[in-house]
Amino acid sequence: MGGLQKKKYESGSATNYISRNKARKKLSLSLADFRRLCILKGIYPHEPKHKKKVNKGSTAQKTFYLLKDIRFLLHEPIVGKFREYKIFVRKLRKAYGKGEWGGVEKLRENKPAYKLDHIVKERYPTFVDALRDVDDALSMCFLFSTFARTGKCHVETIQLCRRLSVEWMNYIVASRSLRKIFLSIKGIYYQAEVLGQTITWLVPYQFAHDHPTDVDYRVMATFTEFYTTLLGFVNFRLYQTLNLVYPPKLDGKGETELRAEFEEDYAMDSESYLEKLSALSASLARVISSAEDEEAELDHFPVEGDDMEKMEAREKAQQEQDRQKKLFEGLKFFLNREVPRESLAFVLRCFGAQVSWDKSLCIGSTYDVTDETVTHHIVDRPSLDKQYMNRYYIQPQWVYDSVNAKMLLPVEDYFLGVTLPPHLSPFVEEKDGDYVPPERLKLLALQRGERPEQDEEEDEEEDEEEEEDDDDDNDDGEEEEEEAEEEVKLKNMEEKRTQGKAVSAKVTPGKAKQENRQRLEQEEKAEEKRLAIMMMKKKDKYLYDKIMFGKKRKVREANKMAAKRKALDEASKSDRKKKLKK
Amino acid sequence: MAAARRHRLVAASQPGFLPLKADLDGSGQTTGRRKRVNKNKKKNWNKYSDIQDVEEFLDDVRLQERAAGGLIADKPDDSLFFVDTGNQKSVPEPGGVGKKGRNSKPLRIDLILQPDSRIAPPKDVLAHQRPNAKKERRIAQKAEKLAAMGVLPRRQKLLRRPPAAPSVKEKPVTSKDPERNFYDLWSAGGPETADLYYLEQTKKKLVKRPEKLNEKPSVLPAVEVIAPGGSYNPDFFSHQALLLEAHEVEVQKLKAEERLQRKLAINKADVATEMSTFKEQIEGLVEEEEEPNPEAEQVADAVDESVGSAAQREKKTEKQRKKEKAERMKELQKKAERKMIDSRQQLFKLRSISADVKEMAQRTRRRRVQRKARQEAQKSLPRRLGKLKFQAPDLDIQLSDEIPGSLRTLKPEGSILKDRFKSLQKRNLIEPRERAKFKRKHKLKYVEKRAFREIK
């Protein structure tokens, strides 16, 4: 046996990883710069499988990177820019110290700058890749755009974020791709479907900021820097797909409408255009002014069998989507001043409504409160002094719930001063057997097109609910009942057979047996199922039993929840009655 | 001109020439031995012929021309001399005295810059040329022809060109500029379209990104939607479910704290009593009478014996050896036989063995599934990326009495910035860190100010 003796930590995982400090030294960057570079390039730390081996026998917790990643970083042109910037800062400090103001100015003029375009291209080789990753970018941009310009981060960053988020909202409005909204205690979650990708983002409520101290602002600013670049390019491409002009421009009609007298009072000239865009009340200019809503219909191909069904299902879904897109079309809304204007304007415009607000509230209002054609007036206060006859006064939740339900909900539940029904999360998808709150059940029924009778008497409502509950019970009880019935039948048969000898043969006139065909079919199916269960292998049978057990447990839990709910409702009702009596 | 120059030179060579500078009267000439050099080479003509006197003389001539407007020798005496008739009162300068006069006086710097040479500037050569009618005609004809073709002369072209924008140095585009413009990044002709060899040589080719970087470090979605109980106007049960979740988290925290407290609690047996302290103090002072342990001694003896016996072991006899060998052989044979029988017996145990094997296989399968499931679950868990572990943020929740009746009265809970930051940590994009603490290099020194001390 010849050869050299193998040494420890000279091959394998020990050489595949590199600690953060070593990587930093290899790149000759400061820790802050190294961190920034890693974020921009999308290089993240790794946890090695065998830490002790990688750490050369030590068990100290360290941050590791893959060596190949760091080698890749060595070729990045931005590294040079970072070094230049470091030198620039040093020179500037020196000039300041010496009081050479001319020198300071000169240095400032030649401040080194870098772009991230090539990194975006490198990290997302295709547009779809970028679109998939845009969630983060959106949340961050919307968050940063609401920051106060107080020096927590650069003012330019805030401005850029604002611009990009406004552009994004305008795109969503123009393409009508919003799908779900959820008002949470944290912020507003939006979900849109853009070019086949589902994109979710979170928007903070206005004026909801306390700056937490345990967040590293530098890291967040670096992420934002990259994400703004990404979002800018994504926006450009998206605008192109809709033939919209980029940077966005209001179309001629909208522009003239929006020219108000108070424009100068409202915003500076440099900012007023962005403000008008962000008002979202006018449509955007197109590169080629096409006929409005030129909709491509699905092509029909003759197909057979399963594909046909699929096609039909798809077509149906498409139609439903189209219907949803025009949910608020033809309606005219007016926003009172206490409702969240931006969010509501965005949502309403996304579904084709016309929106306006008070002139003093924001730029870009198109009609007045006194307009007779207003159909819905959104108010969020207990009462209103002056009310018009020909419009609904509703609370803002109606808009969001209608969008989530994909239909116009009855306005009665959302009138002024009425206790609102709960705002359910559209992001929850119930499987069969889960507990479903009664409000949701009602909504599902509405969607199916059943219109529950809106009687004032509570008892009837209650009955309905009970019936629904009963239905639930029936679902799981049915099988057992069937089995019992059949057993009874069999018993009778057997009895007859045993008694057959004793019973004298007797011919009775035959009765035309009324065969319930449906019933028969069902029975047949049940029989088949039972046979299939009997024929199962032991292993499969075990699994099957387990699944059935799980299902039953779920049903039981759901029943329990429903019972609890009923009890709660009753209790609250009796409370109310007592109060009334008092 | 040339004639005049020659005349001047001739004049200067006359014996009556007056040099302006004092040292140019021939007396300054060195009278050392001249170095002898061959004069048949051109190089030597230049190098070893002394032309300094000529140069100086010519310089002087030029100076005279500049300063006096000609050679002094040529000037009439009247222009050079005047009769001194005593001290003449200096005439005050016209133009007033005082401030005004001072103002009208030219600045010294202007005076310095004024030409002081007496030589007239050379005349314009072109002024003497007569216009060439033929040439001009031809030029005019050409211009007409060009004008007919629509070509403008250069001067007019320059005039018509739009005034160039004032050349402002273009600032390099930064990624933070709010006015920056974007373009179609994904369809723009990238550097890949150019020649590969050229790109390589000019170091413009980007290095290929490692394939592994395209994997996401976590399977978690970028934006995790809050549970339905987190609605601003939640359904009763989902709200209760969320509350329960938050409650459980709190209970866990309390338990951990209690455990810590229990561990840190002082054991009552360890507390020093009067007795124990006294014992400690007199340690070693009082002789304790303890009987030597008889058992320990015995053990020591036994050890001694065994060592001794090993040393004194005798050699085995031949007979003993043979006997031992035979025994060993027998043992081996027995073992082999036993094995044979066992294996033969196994044939009858085939069923139980196969059951065992089956069970074993099942166990491995089960374990494999478990391992895989664990690995899957780990993918969504935050990894340990640094000194600190990931700390899940507190659940954002509003108690039942905090739930607002309407959107207007909603008080947002938690911070989205923190939520985003924690999400980044949870998805293994950044390592959890503690904020760097401020360390003071030098100790602070407190000094009472004098004024303050006096009042006190």
TrEMBL record, chain A:
Compositional bias annotation for Acidic residues: 453-486
Main localization of the protein described in the UniProt heading: nucleus
Keywords of the record: Coiled coil, Nucleus, Ribosome biogenesis, rRNA processing
Region Disordered: start-end pairs: 445-525, 557-582
Record's GO cellular component terms: nucleoplasm; PeBoW complex; preribosome, large subunit precursor
Metal-binding in keyword set: no
Pfam families with a match to the protein in the record: BRCT_2 (PF16589), Pescadillo_N (PF06732)
Ranges annotated as biased composition (Basic and acidic residues): 487-498, 512-525
Database matches in InterPro entries: BRCT_dom, BRCT_dom_sf, PES
GO molecular function (one): RNA binding
GO terms classed as biological process: exocrine pancreas development; maturation of 5.8S rRNA from tricistronic rRNA transcript (SSU-rRNA, 5.8S rRNA, LSU-rRNA); maturation of LSU-rRNA from tricistronic rRNA transcript (SSU-rRNA, 5.8S rRNA, LSU-rRNA); oligodendrocyte differentiation; regulation of cell cycle
Domain BRCT: 323-416
Locations listed in the record: Nucleus, Nucleolus; Nucleus, Nucleoplasm
Functional note: Component of the PeBoW complex, which is required for maturation of 28S and 5.8S ribosomal RNAs and formation of the 60S ribosome.
HAMAP family xref list: Pescadillo
The protein's assembly and partners: Component of the PeBoW complex, composed of BOP1, PES1 and WDR12. The complex is held together by BOP1, which interacts with PES1 via its N-terminal domain and with WDR12 via a high-affinity interaction between the seven-bladed beta-propeller domains of the 2 proteins. The PeBoW complex associates with the 66S pre-ribosome. The PeBoW complex also associates with DDX27, PES1 interacts directly with DDX27. Interacts with IRS1 and UBTF. May interact with MAP1B. Component of the PeBoW complex, composed of BOP1, PES1 and WDR12. Within the PeBoW complex BOP1 interacts directly with PES1 and WDR12. The PeBoW complex also associates with the 66S pre-ribosome.
Family: Belongs to the pescadillo family.
Protein's UniProt name: Pescadillo homolog
Organism: Pygocentrus nattereri
Higher taxonomy: Eukaryota, Metazoa, Chordata, Craniata, Vertebrata
Gene: PES1
TrEMBL record, chain B:
GO CC terms in record: nucleolus; nucleoplasm
Record keyword Nucleus present: yes
Claim: Nucleus is one of the keywords in the record: yes
UniProt keyword terms in alphabetical order: Nucleus, Ribosome biogenesis
InterPro entries on file: Nop53/GLTSCR2
Biased composition (Basic residues): 32-41, 363-372
Residue ranges, compositional bias (Basic and acidic residues): 324-338
Family: Belongs to the NOP53 family.
Role of this protein: May play a role in ribosome biogenesis.
Protein name (database record): Ribosome biogenesis protein NOP53
